[in-house]
Amino acid sequence: EEQLVESGGGLVEPGGSLRLSCKTSGFIFGNFGMSWVRQAPGQGLEWVASMGAGSVSKTYADFAQGRFTISRDNAKNILYLQMNSLKNEDTAVYYCTKAFRPAAAVDATALRGQGTQVTVSS
Hints:
four-stranded antiparallel sheet, 45% strand, 10 strands, 3% helix
C-alpha cells in the first residue's frame, strides 16, 4: 500500500522557520517526482513546490521562491520542505503528493498524506 506521512508542522512566529518531512512507503520513491501543496482555511489546494525524481529539477510557486526549499533523500524515501521567513499567509495544512506537475499535484485524485498543520502567528 502506498503511503505518505507528513510531519514537522507547528506554531511559529512570523519570520521563523520550519522543516516539513514526508515519509513515503509502498512505492519506489526514487522513480517519482514529488510535490508539496497546501490548503489554507476555506481555500482549495495550492501548489507549493515540485521536485523531479532525479533530484535536479525543482520548481516553486512565486510565493515560495527564495523562501522555501524542496529536497529529497532517496535512500531514506523522504521528501522535505524547508520553509524560511514564514508569513502569516503561509498558515495552512501542508501535504506532500505523489505527483510532479503542479496541475496533477492539486488534483483531487493525487495520492496525499494526512497533512501537517503550519500556523504562523505572533
